[in-house]
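User: I'm putting together a small comparison set for a docking exercise, and I want a reference complex before I start. The sequence is below, and the ligand is nicotinamide-adenine-dinucleotide. Could you produce the 3D structure with the ligand included, as structure tokens?
Assistant: Of course. I'll restate your input first, then give the structure tokens for the complex.
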Amino acid sequence: MATHKLLLLPGDGIGPEVMAEVKKLIAWMNAHGMGTFETEEGLVGGSAYDAHKVAITDETMAKAHAADAIIFGAVGGPKWDAVPFDVRPEAGLLRLRKDLVLYANLRPAVTYPALADASALKRELVAGLDIMILRELTGGVYFGEPKTITDLGNGQKRAIDTQIYDTYEIERIGRVAFELARKRRNKVTSMEKRNVMKTGVLWNEVITQLHQREFKDVTLEHQLADSGGMQLVKNPKQFDVVVTDNLFGDMLSDIAAMLTGSLGMLASASLGEADPKTKKRKAMYEPVHGSAPDIAGKGLANPIAMIASFGMALRYSFDMGREADLIDKAIAATLDKGLRTADIKSEGTTSVGTSQMGDAIIAEMEKLAA
Ligand code: NAD
């Protein structure tokens, strides 16, 4: 059996707490002959800043390049609000995404039956929901230059961010969208703002041409990103794969988050180009949520997003779909039993902490695998 090299980057706040549950799961899988995982750990975000005055060191970056997959917790917190911009905790995350060219961010929004009532929307709108928000992650306004604040000398300052997209960037994310759709319900909705932005015009054109050239069998529709946001809340089940740029994807995936009840439930994957020789993709897996400083250190965090992110690593990096399904089923079974962390608590359910939730999921896996 191939050995899979994982780099674990727990980060700050609840990051290490939810990562501890993934470590238990990895140990359980190793002990049960479900894959051979070797793990290394590194610092990122505020914890890296405290130790090394940078958000991630070159040594940790080298480990990230060498790993088969990176499992990332969360970074940030008020403690580091005043650190210089270049070494703020998020800079570690952005460097990983940029240096590993992780351009495709997959954010599934799945409503587990037991949690349909935890959504801000009516049960019938979200029960059985299973959509994928695909966000372009390495281009657009978060990285475009110039990115400056200039003192105009008259008591005014000018801030500039630059939104840039080249054809190849749109084409490669589009290709991921169509390929994902073919394995799902065969529909892609592309979202941009072609009515007011040149990048939107090009985005629309490139996706349309790619569809005509290579993916005519997939249904393609276009929506403006603002009305797409409304549609996500009004009738989310109309979507299968939604593909959009970095900025809109950041917002639309958070809207999708609320459809499923809690940030604590949402997993994500960030994938790069496949190596032509080994076919392996650089890949990082992380929960959508942040470091949740308000509940950090209290053992209250929901570990499901982190565990489900590890499940995505099995599916997309290691071709272990069966084991990934097992994790999803174990999560569903645990929720069916009424176990809930505080963020997804509802009447008549049993409150558990981070570690109990992790243990319960492993116990369900034990049963399902027997
Ligand atoms: P957040 O996701 O950390 O928290 C938002 C709310 O959701 C909080 O009330 C929190 O308690 C709750 N929550 C989040 N994850 C949870 C979980 N697993 N279980 C239970 N409840 C959970 O977002 P925020 O408060 O806007 O940001 C806090 C810090 O995290 C900031 O420093 C921010 O920059 C950083 N952040 C990091 C990432 C990342 O590392 N990828 C993402 C978003 C925010």
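Residues 157 and 196 are 25 Å apart (CA to CA). The pocket of nicotinamide-adenine-dinucleotide is lined by residues 14, 18, 74-77, 90, 93, 263-264, 286, 289-295, 301-302, 305, 341, 343 (CB under 6 Å).
User: Thanks, that's exactly what I needed.
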